[in-house]
Amino acid sequence: MIEALDHVQLAAPRGSEEVLRAFYAGLLGMAETPRPPALAARGGCWFEAGSVRLHLGIEDGFRPALKAHPGLRVADVDTLAARLADAGHPVAWDDSVPGVRRFHSADPVGNRLEFLQPHG
């Protein structure tokens, strides 16, 4: 039945597209992808890197996801943590999952994100 995860949708407040682009494309190095015209009119941004696709949609009455989050596997978790911290984003390390080095952070609108790198 289910073959793969196609994308993860996160919400964002109206007018936040530029800070989202600066974070996801500029800081994380994801490519912004075009949206179909009918969806583009609603605002928001889509990003991808390899097989990872994140959609950020505009939500009136937005509240950031504080518990729910995508887990993004990265090649160099320590370098990314330093890059995020240097840019003023929180970095909270968590060693509770064996075999994985990981931390949580937040995008510029407050959505929780997990970045992880398996050991060995």
Question: What are the SSEs and their pairings?
Answer:
Elements: E1 8-12, H1 17-27, E2 31-33, H2 37-40, E3 45-49, E4 52-58, E5 71-73, H3 77-86, E6 92-94, E7 100-106, E8 112-118
Walk me through the structure.
By secondary structure, this protein is an alpha/beta fold. It is about 20% helix and about 35% strand. It has helices spanning about 15-25, 35-40, 75-85; strands at about 10, 30-35, 45-50, 50-60, 70-75, 90-95, 100-105, 110-120. The mean pLDDT is about 95.
Our Rg estimate from Cα atoms comes to 15 Å
SSE pattern: EHEHEEEHEEE
Overall 3D shape: globular
Topology, number of strands: 8
Spatial ordering of strands, largest sheet: 1-4-3-2
Low-confidence stretches: none
Query: What's the N-to-C terminus distance?
Result: 32 Å
Strand content: 25-35%
Give average pLDDT, whole number: 95
Please give a handful of descriptors for the protein shown.
alpha/beta, 21% helix, four-stranded mixed β-sheet, 120 residues
In short:
The chain has 120 residues and is an alpha/beta fold. It has helices at 17-27, 37-40, 77-86; strands spanning 8-12, 31-33, 45-49, 52-58, 71-73, 92-94, 100-106, 112-118. The chain is built from three helices and eight strands.
